[in-house]
Structures are given as C-alpha cells and as structure tokens.
Q: What sequence folds into this?
C-alpha cells in the first residue's frame, strides 16, 4: 500500500498570503491541528496551530511565520508504514504528500490512515485474536500458519511486537474461526505460550452472563 492510495483532497492548503485568522478558521473547520503551506503548487512546509494562536495578530500573513514551517512531508511513492511512522513520531493530524520534484499533491489525514490500517489488519472481520509469546530465535510464521491451517482455519492478519529488554516477542494473529479452541489446544501441544485470546464468542458469553444476573436480580 503506497502513500498515493491515501491522498485526500478534502483539506485545502494555506497560501503564504493568507492570514492567521483564515488559518485558524480552516484548522477548526477541518478539526486538524496542522496545515500545509503551498505556493504555486510548491510545498513550503507544515504549520501547527500553536504559533497561529500565540501570535496575537489575526491579520498577520502566514508567510511572516515562515520560521515556524516544519519540513515534514512524505513522497507519494513511499509505503504507508512510513506515513504511519511520521504521523506517530511527530503527532501529526495531517501529513503533506509531495512528488519527487516537491510538487504538492495533497495530505494524508490521520483518521483516514487509521481506518486504512484497521481494514488491512481485518479489525472488522469476524474471528478470534490470539497472542503468542515466542523467543525471537524460535519465531517461525510458517510453523504458526501450519498449526492454524491444520485446524481448517486461516490467518487474516498478524502483528509482531518485540521487547527491547528481552529476547521475547509477542505474535498477535487474527484467525477466521469464532471457535478457536482446537487451534489453541494445538498451539499448547506444540509448546507455544498462549498469552491471551479474544473472540466474539467470549463477548457473547459475557453478555449472556450479565443478562442472566440481571434476570436473577429482577426476580428477587
């Protein structure tokens, strides 16, 4: 998934001759805390809301705050993971996208980026999430997939989280089975440590227990 697929044209950039008042209005209207500044199609930088509110003169031109422009952007050919890294690292509400000749193409909106990644890891697909704790030297996605598939299930998505302080890693997988008991038993049989599992069935059971408790209370 490249950055090009995430570009939005919903948010218009500021121009150097625009006023601080307009900048604040555009940020509030679009519910963002950053806006790109563009001159004749060329990207100049990203400005945050703080200097706009702090300046005290709403008639001031945006170009007079050029020392607050941040050189933050991403090329349209880069991978979406790089966009996520920048947005997370600099706490951005929007990320400007440029071509290889620095032509402004649009922005990536934080909410769109989160939604796209949620879709890519099958957040809304029915199934069960399983968290395995594995030694970094013992990790094999091929073996994990084989165990899952031996129980007529498939892996919908996988996320790997390493701990800098240990040689352990968490492998979080989502499978397409609502009843994952057979898969969990197989992991245990192959000496995998199952740290946690979360499924729709668990939630249904909790709701059933709460309902029955409520009925017992009503009937007292």
A:
């Amino acid at each position: 998934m490249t950055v090009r697929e995430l570009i939005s044209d919903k948010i218009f950039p500021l121009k150097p001759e625009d006023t601080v008042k307009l900048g604040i209005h555009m940020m509030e209207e679009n519910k963002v805390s950053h806006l790109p500044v563009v001159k004749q199609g060329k990207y100049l930088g990203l400005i945050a809301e703080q200097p706009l509110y702090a300046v005290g003169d709403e008639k001031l031109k945006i170009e007079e705050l050029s020392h607050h422009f941040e050189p933050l952007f991403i090329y349209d050919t880069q991978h979406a993971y790089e966009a996520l890294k920048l947005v997370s690292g600099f706490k951005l509400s929007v990320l400007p996208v440029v071509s290889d000749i620095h032509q402004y193409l649009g922005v990536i909106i934080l909410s769109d980026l989160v939604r796209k990644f949620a879709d890519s890891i099958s957040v809304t697909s029915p199934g069960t999430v399983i968290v395995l704790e594995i030694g970094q030297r013992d990790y094999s996605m091929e073996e994990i997939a084989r165990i899952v598939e031996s129980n007529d299930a498939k892996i919908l998505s996988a996320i790997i989280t390493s701990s800098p302080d240990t040689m352990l890693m968490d492998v979080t997988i989502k499978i397409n089975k609502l009843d994952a008991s057979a898969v969990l038993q197989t992991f245990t049989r192959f000496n995998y440590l199952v740290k946690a599992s979360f499924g729709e069935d668990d939630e249904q059971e909790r709701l059933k227990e709460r309902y029955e408790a409520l009925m017992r209370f009503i009937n007292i």
